[in-house]
Amino acid sequence: MSTVEERVKKIVCEQLGVKESEVQNSSSFVEDLGADSLDTVELVMALEEEFETEIPDEEAEKLASVQDAIDYIVSHT
Amino acid sequence: MSLEGKTALVTGATRGIGKAIARALSEQGVQVVGTATSADGAESISAELKAHGLNGFGIVMDVADPESIEKGLKQVVEKAGAPQILVNNAGITRDNLLMRMKDDDWSSVIDTNLASVFRTSKAVLRGMAKARWGRIINISSVVAGMGNPGQVNYCAAKAGVEGLTRSLAKEMGNRGITVNCVAPGFIDTDMTRKLDDSQREAMMEVIPAGRLGEPVEVAAVVAFLASEVAGYVNGETIHVNGGMYMG
To answer: Chains A and B: how many Cβ contacts under 8 Å?
Structure first.
């Protein structure tokens, strides 16, 4: 079973079309990984699907980096 | 213009313009799933396509009911794959002068003709965004621009569809997804057959073509907008009305 970190990074790679080597925990989706507003919406939807949870809009807005996403998932699932 | 291998969802495909659209798209090699509100209607869609040796079938889906849309879409994905083409054609009229119009006449037309477009689009967009390709074609009406006495509900819904179309076109434009409207004028369907002789006469006077349009003439424009080469047409409303209104 993969860890939350591995699963989050895999989704980030798939959604944003970046290589695993480019994705650090500290990577910002927009600044480092080139995500636009639609990418971030799709990313949140993919995370919701993978972890079978619902991320409210006001929480989703705060998820700026890979680590933010991991922390959110860990504390909410 | 071939669209071989793609799946299209066409709402309200049992008769009139929707039926012609289902036919026109499947003639381009698209697997068409047409929706009807009854099981008989769904069967007639399947039979019609089969009779012409075309690929596609009908399902039961009520576009005014979010649950029915969810169920219907599940069926589409299972049987035909995620649709890359969506044609929002299903529509109803409940005409009356505003002073006599019931609340229910207003809300059912808004729900079936406008809210449905929001719901079906939302249901298919995820798949289109993933595929980086999609076509949403909404059937509006000439009266969205002109206005028409007795149809405040219908005109409001159709004008709403055109606004939704422009916004969604901007939202999804960088994903290879286009969202456009086709606005038919008076087309020879059950909807216009309801008009009486004096209404017909008045109508003919304002149509330079001097005749009603045929459903295939609307369907041909939809097939064009669905095609690969229409990829740079986005957020547009194309009028098909014999010249009665030019926007």
So the answer is: 10
> Residue B103 corresponds to which tokens in the numbers above?
């609340």
What residue of B is the nearest CA neighbor of A39?
B129
ipTM above 0.95, yes or no: no
CA-closest candidate to residue B139, choices B21, B231, B233? B21
What tens-digit pLDDT sequence spans chain B (247 residues)?
A: 568 999 999 999 999 999 999 999 999 999 999 999 999 999 999 999 999 999 999 999 999 999 999 999 999 999 999 999 999 999 999 999 999 999 999 999 999 999 999 999 999 999 999 899 999 999 999 999 999 999 999 999 999 999 999 999 999 999 999 999 999 999 999 888 888 888 888 889 999 999 999 999 999 999 999 999 999 999 999 999 999 999 7
State if pTM tops 0.90.
yes
Q: Which residues of A touch B126 (CB under 8 A)?
A: 42, 45
Interstrand relation of B237-240 and B31-36 (parallel, antiparallel or unpaired): unpaired
CA distance B41 to B48: 10
